[in-house]
Amino acid sequence: MIACAMSAYSRRFYREQMSASGLTSFQVVVGESDLFVWAEHDLSGEVRESLARHRLALEEFIAAQPMFGTTYRPYPVPQDAPEVVSLMARAAERAGVGPMAAVAGALAELVGRDMLPLSREIMVENGGDIFIRSGQPRRVGIFAGESPLSGKLALLVPPTGPRGLGICSSSATVGPSYSAGKADAALVVAESAALADATATALGNRAKSPSHIEGALSWAAAIEGVIGCLVIMGKHLGVRGPLELEKA
């Protein structure tokens, strides 16, 4: 079972419990990016090269346009922007957030896609944000801070299409990332991990109280490319879209 969680502490905890049948797992760290990867064989060198390349492109763009790295609003980028920058900007535009809200999902997605010619099965986890391409069902555990539902539920992910999908989460109560809401977990499944990451941030921002959960879910589910979403806030759970949950 794979896991969605939101902090360095919880990452150390949940990685001890993660597994993916039939695949080899390995960790790759470059700068602040800490990836945990499952593939048909060890691709540590290839993953490290891919991650370093995309990070360098992003760092150089931010050095030239610093507001890209600080704004909380969508940021227009030129057509010739690096792939990682364009992916983040498109996701941020759809979700109405700053592009850095998509950075973890974007890096997981780009590294995962780079590995597809080398491994038919690939899963890349980056701080609880996941890119997955799998020909068999997988289970993703959901961690939600101090909520009584934390660690009690798993998302059943059916076999994905050839381009894979993204499963990303945000939290106002776990980890250092800023959230304007109160959700213990805001999780989004989307056609793109960058889009799932940006939308999870926006969904978490909108979930300010239990009474806001349904409205926030309706808003997120209407975004093009979003497959489904859920919010956990204390004992409250809301789900939108064809997501199948089971006991973890």
List keywords for this structure.
248 residues, alpha+beta, 8-stranded antiparallel β-sheet, 4-stranded mixed β-sheet
What this model shows, in words?
Helices cover 31% and strands 27% of the residues. With 248 residues, it is an alpha+beta fold. The strands form 2 sheets. The protein has an 8-stranded antiparallel β-sheet. A 4-stranded mixed β-sheet has the order 1-6-7-12, with no helix packed on it. Strand 10 and strand 11 (236-240) form a beta hairpin. The longest helix has 21 residues, at 44-64.
Name the helix and strand elements from N-terminus to C-terminus, one letter apiece.
EHEEHHHEEEEEEHHEEE
What is the makeup of the main sheet? Answer: 8 strands, antiparallel
Note the quaternary state here. single chain
Query: What structural class do the secondary elements suggest?
Result: alpha+beta
Order of adjacent strands in the largest pleated sheet: 2-3-4-5-8-9-10-11
Unreliable stretches: 5-13
